[in-house]
Fold:
Amino acid sequence: MMPLQSRFRVIGAVVAMCVAGTTGCEGMRESPFLSRHFTKDDKSVAAHQRWDNFRGNVRLKMAEQHMQSQRYDEAEKVLLEALDMLPDVPLVRRMLAELHFETGKLDSARREIEAYMIDAPEDASGFSIAGRIASRDGRL
Structure:
C-alpha cells in the first residue's frame, strides 16, 4: 500500500495534467491547489511562452485546414485564437487577410494586410495580396 503522502503527490500530478489539458498554463496558475508550485520566474514565463507558441502553431494548422475546406467561420475563430497566442507572428495577419479576402470582407482584409506588411515588409506575398484586394475593391 502506498503511503498517504505519496498518494497526495500522485493525485496532485493527475489534477495538474487535467488542468493543463483543459485550460493550459493559465488554469494551473489560477488553481488554488496548484498555484504554490508556479512562480513568475524566468523559467515559468519561458515555459508559458513555449506552450502558447505550440498551441498557436496548432491553431494555424487547423485554420489552414478549415480554409482549404472552405469552413471560413471556423477558420476565423481559430485564427483569432492564434492571434491572441502569437501576437508577434506576422503569418497570422496574412492568413486573416486571405480569409477576409475570400469571404468578401475587403476592409478587414486591407487592415490585416497593412498590419502584415508593416511587420514583414520583406515578404512579397503581402504586396500580392494587397494587389488582389485593391483589384477586387476597384482601387486598381
User: Anything to note?
Assistant: Helices lie at 4-23, 25-30, 42-68, 72-85, 90-102, 106-119, 124-137. The chain has a mean pLDDT of 81. The first helix runs from residue 4 to 23. Residues 16 and 136 are 51 Å apart (CA to CA).
